[in-house]
Q: What sequence folds into this?
């Protein structure tokens, strides 16, 4: 996308600038969903997953029967990508159309979380990201549920952030064209909550 | 995510159900952004890209200097994934928390689009997806711009759709818990357009 309004940040595990980590963490923490890429026998798969971040580690989870998690827990290299689409950029020329966005691609090797405390903490953060303090409100997982849930950790070995913001950048000779140009801001918006009909009457929110 | 409310569709190039293609096309066409996964020397990358669909072919584009497109045009197998996050599902138990979503993973092998007509058509559809008929309004690409733009086609060889919708599915023994449960609907919303300050005064939208 257009260079003039694009920004980049890059971190490596042993060669880091605090500023760049902050940029990367902010983009990650603003997202509920990531896309996880991995390879199985030469075929690349990209799947959407919920995730949580604790420090420089990303956590994924799923059912113990999940074929994907079974593959990943063997120490597979993964790419975890998060993207926010912040707007459409309508330029005077078709060529300079673009999108405003913030994106992070984080690279690491997955490991299964076996430690009970780390697993419990990761699951709490996963739930709390959906609603603040939700893990204190909802019934905590029992032993059977914990056994049915697999949690993977992906320590970030390297990550890069890319973003674009701002108006279109048209060529000087196009500026007088009779074409509307500008931005269409986009954002993910929550609408009114829908109570599950089965909530007891004594317990309406 | 929860099985009871999950739906799946799967198509293969030579073994297709029209219903499943319609499901997959609807999810693809509702998205402006996809995540493209590919492998370079054993490392998987997942990058966000704009895309267009014409029939059973997905089109990607970027600068001719793009390292990613240079890799892909050599006939790389790719996975193009699109996900809509439609809502958060807050259950009475932490274990049954989930998300409502619609997702498609499409698999194919990228080829560079050389044919001038196919390239022009793909670029038109890419621009029109941002705003209806935008390709008729904006200045069309000239020869220099077309030379600077690389377009890749990914004919869909196989694709699968997954989705979840509806309320949480709690265990019977949790239904009387004093915990609010339900859905938080989410959607990508456009806010008021921001005119580029450089639009001539005679040409206000």
A:
């Amino acid at each position: 996308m257009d260079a003039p309004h694009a920004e980049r940040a890059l971190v490596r595990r042993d060669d880091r600038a605090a500023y760049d980590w902050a940029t990367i963490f902010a983009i990650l923490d603003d997202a509920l969903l990531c896309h996880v890429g991995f390879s199985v026998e030469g075929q690349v798969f990209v799947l959407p997953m919920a995730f949580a971040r604790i420090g420089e580690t990303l956590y994924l989870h799923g059912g113990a029967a999940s074929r994907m998690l079974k593959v990943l827990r063997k120490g597979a290299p993964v790419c975890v990508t998060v993207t926010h689409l912040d707007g459409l950029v309508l330029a005077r020329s078709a060529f300079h159309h673009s999108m405003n966005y913030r994106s992070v691609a984080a690279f690491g090797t997955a490991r299964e979380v076996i430690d009970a405390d780390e697993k419990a903490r990761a699951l709490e953060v996963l739930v709390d990201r959906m609603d603040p303090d939700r893990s204190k409100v909802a019934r905590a997982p029992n032993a059977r549920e914990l056994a049915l849930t697999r949690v993977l950790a992906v320590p970030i070995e390297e990550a890069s952030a890319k973003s674009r913001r701002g108006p279109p950048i048209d060529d000087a000779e196009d500026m007088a064209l009779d074409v509307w140009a500008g931005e269409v801001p986009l954002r993910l918006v929550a609408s009114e909550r829908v109570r599950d009909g089965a909530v007891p009457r004594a317990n309406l929110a």
